[in-house]
């Protein structure tokens, strides 16, 4: 069986949602957990990958792309998102940038016993900033990515997709 058939969150499903929503650029800090998705993104001629050296740069880069008429998505881990809170506030929220953040939910488990305090504070952080979010933990949840894109466009605000499975079934 393929990952899609088993209900796992495959990188192909994530890519299909990005393409369905017209993503032109992926702004991200390279890490090992997104490697499966990276290989697909790199091979896609319709996507431009923009690596940043610090997570906080992702928000200013996404804002610039948006103002320039492009449609970026930010791939970021929860720890990096929290570290870049001021950049998110200044570039994303203050400028009303309609961007989706695909947030790796490091430390989260579906059983409610977090293995890392990063997971403990992720949703609290998003709530403090007034950012809506959608949990995606398997292939059946993939349509929530489109819901996030629709909401970001409608509200002209950042919206988060919390990726609870890192694209390969790790937490199952």
From TrEMBL:
Transmembrane residue ranges: none
Keyword Nucleotidyltransferase tagged: no
Keyword presence, Mitochondrion: no
InterPro entries: THDP-binding, TPP_dependent_decarboxylase
Keyword annotations from UniProtKB, A to Z: Decarboxylase, Lyase
Coiled coil segments of this chain: none
Family matches, as SUPFAM superfamilies: Thiamin diphosphate-binding fold (THDP-binding)
Listed GO MF terms: carboxy-lyase activity
UniProt superkingdom: Eukaryota
Name the UniProt record assigns to this protein: Sulfopyruvate decarboxylase subunit alpha
Taxonomic placement: Eukaryota, Metazoa, Porifera, Demospongiae, Heteroscleromorpha
